Amino acid sequence: MSTVTDRPPAPPETPAPVPAAMRRAAGRKRRVPYWLLLPGIAWLLVFFVAPMIYQASTSVQTGSLEAGFKVTWHFATYWDALTEYYPQFLRSFEYSAIATVLCLAIGYPLAYTIAFRAGRWRNLILILVIAPFFTSFLIRTLAWETILADGGFVVQTLNQLHILDLTSSLGITQGDRVLATPLAVICGLTYNFLPFMILPLYTSLERIDGKLHEAAGDLYAKPFTVFRKVTFPLSMPGVVAGTLLTFIPATGDYINAELLGTTNQKMIGNVIQSQFLRVLDYPTAAALSFILMAVILAMVMFYIRKAGTEELV
Amino acid sequence: MTHDSSGGEVILSGISKRYGAFTAVHPLDLTIPQGSFFALLGASGCGKTTTLRMIAGLEDPSSGTVSLSGEDVTALPPYKRPVNTVFQNYALFPHLDIYENVAFGLRRRGIKSVKKQVEDMLELVELGSMARRKPNQLSGGQQQRVAVARALINHPKVLLLDEPLGALDLKLRRQMQLELKRIQTEVGITFVHVTHDQEEAMTMADTVAVMNGGRVEQLGAPADLYENPGSTFVANFLGTSNLIEAEVTGTSGDDLLLVAGGQKLALPTARCSAKTAVGGRVLAGVRPEKISVAHRDDEDSIADGRNRIPGRIVDSSFIGVSTQFVIDSPVCPELEVFVQNVDRDSRLVPGAPVVLHWNPAHTFGLDAAQDIDAGVQEVEAA
Fold first, then answer.
1. Chain B CB contacts of A209 below 8 Å
2. Annotated domain spans of chain B
3. ipTM
4. Which of A211, A225, A233 sits opposite B95 (nearest CB)?
5. What pTM did the predictor assign?
6. Fold of B10-232
7. pLDDT digits (tens, 9 = 90+) for B212-239
8. Which top CATH class is B242-369?
9. A8 DSSP 8-state letter
């Protein structure tokens, strides 16, 4: 030890009051998180809150493009829109629900395999799952026009296997056509939203400790019981996230119905799009958007309540 | 899956496990008697956990058979074997509460009324009030007890414990050692316990198998293994040993006469596991607590017929009940000695010349052809 430290340090000349500069610095530090939030909040205000308010006001306006629209609190637009377009609403939910179930049926085994059985192929398969995103949504959907083309390989095979007879009797195909039928739209939706199902499923399955499977087996659970009692319940956060990420955008989608269906397969997204861009009936389009949003919100709340995943709520 | 806990004898015959070119367990024969508390002790990677997993059915043996109370179960999947496992880190089901975790095995076997059994079992492990909590709301020690209860409720013929106390802190570990021993005595089920902690194995088990490099080095009662280690690995892994390289000069009665660094030593022939011949070399071992330390000035007061080694104190640490000395001697570079703090000799400080002496009967002999430091590193790593 040097001699300097043998003496106690000299007391400061004046008792140091907390300097104002330091207090300001502390205040700045406390405000840092808010500054970091600012870009996000600004973005949401400009591109989410403002358009919402604008559309909400549009939905209760009356008028025409030539005369201009005025807020007249004309709530009847909502009722009119609903009564006129409820078939498209119902169809949207129907197609979207079927596509979601198909995504779950196709995606779960795949996610399970990637998580538990793929070994060194895991990353390759994950890349293949994401690979379609490298192509535009539109191109991928157009490709299905070719895949499902009349007399094409897929349709011929389905026809020979008499699967088309079955689907026709269910009313989702017509004769020996798949294109321009509900099945084509559902196939498109399933294909396009499958990665949104697989990725959250994979994430929640991958998190499950393999020891739990061993423990369940050790406690007399047969392999399928292990799945039913341990694996599946523990993957529920992934199931809920996956179904929501599939169902919500699929309900509002209009590209698949536009490209793979006919006027008989129009979904609510198609109606909203044409009201906005072709008919130019802005109040009806806005009202339809709000109805869709409200119904989806209600369904999602109910679903999460039922599925009971604490992690998501 | 039977409900009687009798007949829990485990016989492993010629069982081995290979992963490609690596042999985790060399062909192994082991009989674990019914009702015993059996420990597989060794450093990580010695094959103890693999052996346990082969008994549980979680690992398929590359050769050999596993039989439980006379029945060959080698081909049975885990869910058909009458054994249960307490996993390392417990592997409790996070989505089920404590009650359902404990009831899991009963429900899988189709037992409808589980309430009484589950409550009794939670009482046995003193967790009755925690029944409706989720595992992550419990402390490590409580989770450990749930894991034991979840396994024991099925009345397995054999309970397998894979490092069950590894995740607990020292104090809790001591407490749980006694607790597990109490439960084992109470239920009388065969326990097979895997651990790397030699103290834990010695405290709890009736029989300890010390494993090293995929083989059982030595098998026996804890005191027997400690007093008569059969190899340098066991001598160093179980506690500490002073191993002195010596040359055999002859015999005298029941003793072998040795010379090490010019110092004459005696070793009971019966306690030497190595083959010896005059002129051959052996390792003479003695446990640190068997040795007495006398200041060089008092050398004359040491009784005749005791082994003695001169040396100098290099280091001494006072740890309450005893003082640990490290002594440098021409016979052996670093001898460890533990002396009970009965009458402390103030002259025994680092630098002091001393004479170490002990009863020749406390010496054991090992084959000098082995690595003298085998098993030392592992203890430090653990």
1. 91
2. 10-232, 242-369
3. 0.82
4. A233
5. 0.81
6. Rossmann fold (3.40.50)
7. 999 999 999 999 999 999 999 999 999 8
8. mainly beta
9. P
